[in-house]
Amino acid sequence: MLAEYKSKTNIGIAIGLILEIVGNVVRMQMPNLAMVGAIIALVGAVFFIWGCMNYAVGKGYSKFLGLLGLLSCIGLVVLVLLPDKNK
After folding, report:
1. Taken in order 34, 37, 43, 49, is the CA torsion positive or negative?
2. What's the domain range around 43?
3. Neighbour count for residue 64 (Cβ, 10 Å)
4. DSSP assignments along the chain, one per residue
5. How many domains does the chain have?
6. Of 2, 31, 42, 45, which residue is least crowded by CB atoms under 10 Å?
7. Could you give the CA distance from residue 21 to residue 44 in angstroms, rounded to a whole number?
8. 18, 44 in Cβ contact below 8 A?
9. In this structure, is residue 86 part of a structural domain?
10. Is 85 domain-assigned?
11. What is the spatial distance between Cα 28 and Cα 11, in angstroms, rounded to a whole number?
12. Contact of 54 with 65, CB cutoff 8 Å
C-alpha cells in the first residue's frame, strides 16, 4: 500500500466506525434524538467510504472499488483480501 494513502485510510475508517457506532447508540438509547443519531451515522458512513476509497487507491485499484464501503465491514474485508498491486 502506498504510504500517502495509509494515513487517510486509517483516519477515514476509524472516524467512520466511531461515528456510525455513536450515531446508532444515540438512535437506540434516545428516541427523541433519533434524527440526530441518524445524521451522525450518515456522516460516519461517508467517512468510512472515503477511507475505503483511499484504501483501494493505495492498493492500486480504482477509487470506485472503495464503494464496497457501502457494505460496511464486509466491504472492508473484501478490500483487505485483495492483493496489493503496488508491490
Report:
1. negative
2. 3-80
3. 10
4. --HHHHHHHHHHHHHHHHHHHHHHHHHHH-GGGHHHHHHHHHHHHHHHHHHHHHHHHHTTS-GGGGGGGGGTHHHHHHHHHSPPTT-
5. 1
6. 31
7. 8
8. yes
9. no
10. no
11. 26
12. no
pLDDT at 27: 93
Using alpha carbons only, what angle is made at residue 77 by residues 63 and 81, rounded to the nearest 5 degrees?
80
How far apart are alpha carbons 86 and 42 in whole angstroms? 32
Cell of 33: 434524538
Torsional sign, CA 64, 67, 68, 69: positive
Q: Tens place of pLDDT for every residue, the chain, 87 residues?
A: 888 899 999 999 999 999 999 999 999 999 899 999 999 999 999 999 999 999 999 999 999 999 998 998 899 999 999 999 987
